[in-house]
Amino acid sequence: MGGGGDLHVPKEIWSPAGGFYADPKRWKRNTAVIGLIIAGIAAYAFKQSVQMEQRHKQPYESIPSQRWYTEKNFPQQ
């Protein structure tokens, strides 16, 4: 039980997940492409968030979003 010996599994076994010896072709390129897509979606979501942000008064302590927050987001009083 769990001796860690050779499993004697044939390499011809097929499964949707890639079988026992999964090493898909071009996996590094595919991973990079998906990473770039996710980074692009995150950048777009961040940009939209910054544009829609509103504050009702000036914060009295420094907060990280002040680096990209502009005065135009404050409502005119």
UniProtKB/TrEMBL annotation:
Q: What is this protein called?
A: Uncharacterized protein
Q: Does the keyword Transmembrane apply?
A: yes
Stretches the record annotates as Disordered: 55-77
Query: Any idea which UniProt keywords this protein has?
Result: Membrane, Transmembrane, Transmembrane helix
Composition bias type Polar residues, residue spans: 63-77
**Annotated transmembrane regions:** 30-46
Superkingdom: Eukaryota
